[in-house]
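FAQ
Q: What does a multi-component entry look like?
A: The components come first, one per line:
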Amino acid sequence: MATQHSRSAARFMMAPAVILLLGWMLVPLTMTVWFSFTRYLPMRGDSIERGLEWVGFENYVRFIGSSSFWPSVQATLVIVGGVLAITVVLGVLLAILLDQPFWGQGIVRILVIAPFFVMPTVSALVWKNMMMDPVNGMLAHLWRFFGATPVSWLSEASVQSIILIVSWQWLPFATLILLTAIQSLDSEQLEAAEMDGAPVLSRFWHIVLPHLGRAITIVILIQTIFLLSIFAEIFVTTGGSFGTRTLTYLIFQRVVDSQNIGLGSAGGVYAIILANIVAIFLMRIVGKNLDK
Amino acid sequence: MARAVSTRRKIATTALAWAIGLLIFFPIFWTILTSFKTEAQAIANPPLFWGFDFTLENYAVVQERSNYMRFLWNSVIIAGGSTLLGIVIAVPAAWSMAFVPSRRTKDILLWMLSTKMLPAVGVLYPISLIFVQFGLLDTRGGLIVVLMFINLPIIVWMLYTYFREIPGEILEAARMDGAGLKEEILYVLTPMAIPGIASTILLNFILAWNEAFWTLNLTAASAAPLTAFIASYSSPEGLFFAKLSAASTMAIAPILILGWFSQKQLVRGLTFGAVK
Amino acid sequence: MGRITLDKVRKAFGDVQVIPPLDLTIEDGEFVVFVGPSGCGKSTLLRLIAGLEDVSGGQIRIDGQDATRVPPAKRRLAMVFQSYALYPHMSVRKNIAFPLRMAGLDKAEQDKRVNAAADVLNLTDYLDRRPGQLSGGQRQRVAIGRAIVREPAAFLFDEPLSNLDAALRVGMRLEISELHKRLKTTMVYVTHDQVEAMTMADKIVVLRAGHIEQVGSPLELYRAPRNLFVAGFIGSPKMNLIGGALAAQHDATTIGIRPEHIAVSTDAGDWHGTVGVSEHLGSDTFFHVTCEGIAEPVTVRVGGEVALHYGDSVWLTPDKSQIHRFDTEGLRIA
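Then the predicted structure of the entire assembly, as tokens:
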């Protein structure tokens, strides 16, 4: 509710943000869509000034038809799915643990959250060298200590390794959000269930978990959006080899390494569509929350 | 809330929680520890937790060899610049949406959020082309603009949720007291919103500091921030653990400290107010 | 000077008409109370006068000058909000001085006026505190202080007492009335509480669904409510409204009789009934009596203590001269 005066002022003040974001979204997006329908190989002299050859859906067909496409989809799904499963399950357990009274809660919380603030290139390099190096890494020492042969993680168990690194980065996020959600659980509700004689496990199953349902959904959706575009972790560890070439990384290679802009752009359009499908679900939840 | 918990249970919980906390923190701890060792001790077998010769040499070498300070400065300028620019653009927009909502406010907010979800790789080439065209490649100014766009939706959202907590009646009171739009924002809204604005700046500074797609792809030598500086360590093998650790420690230390202050804002900022 | 004239003022939110065209004149120096149930449009009407909402049609004049399109800051009106709307980041002194600062007064003049206002409102000891450190009553006084320093053409109050507890409310009611007597400035006061309206107003405006049901002094409204709505709204406890055969005897569709205009007797009277719940206030006692031939229990007010108990049989006799008669439309029959 407001006056005409304040409404026009509001529109005026909103304009910069809206116009800039609109430009940021539309200009590159339009270019990507345009390129995706053309043959665009800058190494061979193609350029916008000289005019790009229109090839219709050829790039889209070729992108899907290439032998790297399905493996990259599979790698993406395995990595995203693996990280989600680990962070959500461990996140719930960890959140419940941190919600219990114990000595040094504040410090432990800080320890658990810390990985989230480590920049992706650092965490990838630290894991690659300090932890996973087959000779001098901590895990190698540990393996040797137990008499096992050290594993060459990033080549022999590359996908699992990436999942481990990324999970380590995102577990704090899941834990923190789920912890916030748990703390908003009405303790009287749990006490009432306790009075009604519900044992610990069934209290968890029937009261805590349903309460966390919404938070879990949000964690899954937000993480999915970020995980679909993980880049630095792969860039500095395996460089996309050993089956860790995700869709994002494949597109990156098409554009940057092989300089096939048309093909890469078609891939980009696929990625955008994929991200939007996830985004729609997230928006619904966020939108509902706005009405309150 | 206060419930009696048996001491035995509390001891067990404490032990478990600390064990897990230390396990999760271990890679960071190990990196910091290693950064103070000599290269030989860094790869000693079995690994040294104590009894090594404490040295700061690695830090000196890293600074000398790769001019760490320049990367740090780039990170500060890029993260700080993009955050402040974003704030300047977002404050009026968030003000409008929080205090003069219209039927379209919700749609605009959701649309802004959706731009955040565009996969960066999908627009990598067009952005590089535009950068080349305007001579922005490998400049701090170019990265400031890109990271500002990346984080603008989050900034608007966070400010919006903070502003909504300020009662509209106070702004109306200011209007009745003779304040124009400028005075209203300057003397009443901004001072009241400072805690929220500060949290927003903090979180977005961290996000921009850690951003590693655009910073890796749009910089070469002169504008490269710490993310790129660290990535340059991915190729050399051999005796470099201690130096890598020193470089890593320097890259994450400032942000770890800031991050610990921003736990609460993190939840609000990254869930768009959907979890409180 | 503060004469406010509303000329065919109308407000619609989208297609919903909140206030149909409405005329009203508020004389200079008058204490006018807008009263009505929640959602009757009284707050909207106040916000239209304040300029916090645009009118959809009609004209608002302040001292004869068209103020319809004038922004709130320029209307020379001061407002006290329900939530007090104090600036939490400013001290009490700065809160009160804020309108003066906006008006560009020099520092010395600001201090002089703030000190004078603080003196009147007993806030001198609190000038350097923040609003968060004050009690509800003190915050209310700061809000009033902020309003009076400007020496506005009129004060607007939007349910200012509804966040206070009962005891404080009575005290603040007196303070506001006192202030009005001293300043002699126009005051427009919105409340849903008819007691506040009756005790403070020179003129009451009863609103329902945006319509003015009646305008008049408290006693005019009490003595001669124009329709059933006003009859039921003004007065506490509520007027007894009786329909059916009893009303027909008085050539009316509905008759109304206030609880204080009914005599009680244990042996003789007009209406026979049984005592239900009684409420003992010490000074008065309210009986709820179920009478033969009357659908609703009749409320009776008796001074002091009366020895009647639940289930006792009683006779009620209304004071014939105090019976209000209403027609099929619910309008008063003169």
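Q: Is there any commentary attached?
A: Sometimes. For this entry: Residues 37 and 203 of chain C are 18 Å apart (CA to CA).
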